[in-house]
Amino acid sequence: MSLRFSVLASGSTGNAIYVESEKKRLLIDAGLSGKKIEASLKQIEVDPKTLDALLISHEHSDHIKGAGIMARRYALPIYANGPTWKAMEGHLGDLSSEQCFTFSTESTMTIGDIDIESFGVSHDAAEPMFFNVHHEGQKLSVVTDLGYVSERIKGTVRGADTFIFEANHDMEMLRMGKYPWNVKRRILGDLGHISNEDAGLALGDLIGEKETNVYLAHLSKDNNMKDLAHMTVKQTMESLGFLVGDGLHLYDTDPVQPTALASV
User: Fold this and answer.
1) Choices 3.30.420.10, 3.90.180.10, 3.60.15.10, 3.30.230.70: CATH for 4-263
2) C-alpha to C-alpha distances, 109 to 46, 63, 154, 221, nearest whole angstrom
3) Which Pfam families does the entry mention (predicted)?
């Protein structure tokens, strides 16, 4: 069985990703209510009772809102790095010590037949990290919540079969939008989020000749639109010589509707 996944929700209001192999079923982040996560899983015909583990990237509420309730309801172990555990104190509710595991940044762990490789990102959290998920030669790379894509990150995720990749904002919408200047400065800074154009430029340095899927993720509800993000990333990549639709497939994600369960 190939590695399969669904982006259950992605955006500034909540993020969660489901990943499965033949033997294991994982959640990456749980930034929705427990009820919404359960409903999204049922839409892709996955019973929440069959989940095996929950990985947390960082402590922001749009990534952990439903983590505590999901862990208690389904007796899930949670994996996060030490600084993130400390930052989440008081936000997850009561958990058994047997459910709390430390997964250090820049390390690899194995859950069943899935290897998960963590890597640090530049974002305004305690110690944010994201993941490469490996199974039988397949690689899914989750790259969101970062102010810029460093050469180190590029080296870590380059050549993935599928990318779940941030395209947070349109630069003009953000500049002209209603946010106060200090919030705009945070988003535009090295500890913020990357723009649609930045996503296209970075992806152009990550994708080789093999067939590749890209899911555009973590779109701002106030400073972006699906069609605009898709068009900007597509045009940016085509300006670099890529032909979207010919071996390179570009998909949208949604803040409330899960993507179809797909192979990496």
Assistant:
1) 3.60.15.10
2) 24, 21, 20, 34
3) Lactamase_B_2
Structural domain spans, the chain: 4-263
- Model pLDDT for residues 53-83, shown as the tens digit of each residue: 999 999 999 999 999 999 999 999 999 999 9
Check: CB of residue 68 under 8 Å from CB of residue 92: yes
- Contact (Cβ atoms closer than 8 angstroms) between residue 114 and residue 136: no
- Paired tokens of 253: 């994600």
Q: 């820049």: which residue's tokens?
A: 106
Q: For the chain, where are the E strands, in sequence order?
A: 4-9, 16-20, 25-28, 53-55, 78-80, 100-102, 108-111, 114-120, 129-135, 138-143, 162-166, 212-217, 248-252, 262-263
Q: How far is CA 53 from CA 28, 116, 214, 240, 250, in A?
A: 9, 12, 25, 39, 28
Helices of type H across 75-193 = 82-87, 151-157, 171-176, 181-188
Mean pLDDT of the residues in the chain: 98
Q: What is the pLDDT of residue 179?
A: 96
Of 124, 141, 121, 68, the closest CA to residue 99 belongs to 68
d(CA 207, CA 189): 25
**Do residues 133 and 119 make contact, with C-beta atoms less than 8 angstroms apart?**
no
